[in-house]
Amino acid sequence: MLLVEKTPQKKENTKSNKLFEEACKVLPGGVNSPARSCKSVDATPIFIEKADGSRIIDVDENEYIDYVGSWGPMILGHRHPRVLEAVELALANGISYGAPCRQEVELAQLVCQMMPSIEMVRFVNSGTEATMSAVRLARGFTGRDMIIKFDGCYHGHADSFLVKAGSGLATLGISNSKGVPEDLAKLTISIPFNDVDALKKAFKEHKGEIAAVIIEPIVGNAGLLLPKDGYLQSVRDLCTENKSLLIFDEVMTGFRVAPGGAQELYDIKPDLTTLGKVIGGGLPVGAYGGRADIMQMVAPLGEVYQAGTLSGNPLAMACGVAQLRIVKNGEALKDLSEITDKLVAGIQKIIDEQKIDAIVNKTCGMFTVFFTKKEVFDFESAKNSDTKKFARFWQNLLEEGVYWPPSQFEAAFVSTMHTDFDLDQTLKAFESALKNLD
Ligand SMILES: Cc1ncc(COP(=O)(O)O)c(C=O)c1O
Q: What distance in angstroms lies between residue 270's CA and the mean position of ligand 1's atoms?
């Protein structure tokens, strides 16, 4: 494990700042994905040089305990030896073939075993591709055009999903993107999460028109939101009643909250599931899969077209196989759950002692500290949070050597590599960060 033990300092002339200046000349906003711009926390990004275990080190040699974890995939932490070994072995045989390889069969078999609702799966290169393709498939299968999504959920940046979306859009306050044709946006209905009546109403108003309901079963992109008791079963039942497909977007929750994802945790069988970063173990992979009768509509078997030059890339597949094999037996996620519980209990204690208006929503390996004292269960209630306070908190944590997701509307990710020592250091950092919010 890296342990440079150098306390990060707030400095103007850092290598990160210089790189950011250069980056801004050639990359819009200096970044390749808005969520990492740190705009909403009134900061500029640090540039990462390397990572190991639970730690990342920036180009100025500052070391941080990492709670971003590449936004989810690093369940086993950075540079897990078995994952590295699998990638190195694959690398020795070449980088890309554009032809079938053994590793894609192995990963497909693992995915189907771990998530039994998935009878067949197609690999793509990102979560966005997965959700976009799943919706096309749902439209092809049902012969309907409309979809229902939930306010604050984020399903990637395909046109159909940029209506009241979470994640970077919520962070930047631009939940409906320019450039999305009005006619296409009209086909997406966005309703509140955890509100069964809103879903019933949407189905009633658009009877026979809804191809699919796409949902993050545990929302990670409005900050962490948990489904209320029985909510996901009601969503399942309403989809069945209305002959619409239910798509679980498990890009974040898949293989993290349980070996079989949120669908195992809540015992719900979706028709289709979308997966992403986690199945690549940090390399660019996505997937959509589900009932065989639906998946058989995908080309070359059926008439729903979808393709990808780099899809099923041997390195990415090998990395995913190595991570999923470790996650499969359940022990790693048991550890992850214990680590998360321990950390959240410590954080809650500090919040109580310091009488901070904050609440914590958590599941296995993911949680969000919302700066509000009211319960947070949908996007509207998440928006009660004091984002200015969050920005101060984020900056304070960074100074204390903790790298936290730079948005109130994101979840923090824990890995199995977070040790007791890391947790103690994190809690000390929290104590100090929360003391200095005003
Ligand atoms: C639930 C969910 N779906 C889809 C996506 C899009 O994935 P990608 O960024 O790989 O395109 C994300 C990304 O964070 C996500 O959290």
A: 18
Number of residues that make up the chain: 438
Q: Which fold has domain 81-328?
A: Aspartate Aminotransferase; domain 2 (3.40.640)
Residues with CB under 6 A from ligand 1: 71, 126-128, 131, 154-156, 167, 216, 220-221, 249, 251-252, 276-277, 286
* Residue 166, pLDDT score: 72
Q: Which CATH number fits domain 15-79+330-435: 3.40.50.1970, 3.30.56.10, 3.90.1150.10, 3.90.190.10?
A: 3.90.1150.10
Report how far ligand 1's centroid is from the alpha carbon of 256 (Å). Answer: 14
Distance, in Å, from the CA atom of 126 to the CA atom of 37, rounded to the nearest integer, reads 20
- b/e map of 285-311 (b: 16 or more CB within 10 Å)? bbbbbbbeebbeebeeeeebebebeeb
Strands 245-249, 210-215: pairing kind? parallel
* Cβ atoms of residues 106 and 112 within 8 Å: no
* pLDDT, tens only, 351-379: 999 999 999 999 999 999 999 999 999 99
260: DSSP letter: T
What number does the ligand 1 atom closest to the CA of 153 have?
A: 1
pLDDT value at 164 more than 80: no
- Work out which ligand 1 atom sits closest to the CA atom of 250: 1
**Per-residue pLDDT, 174:** 66
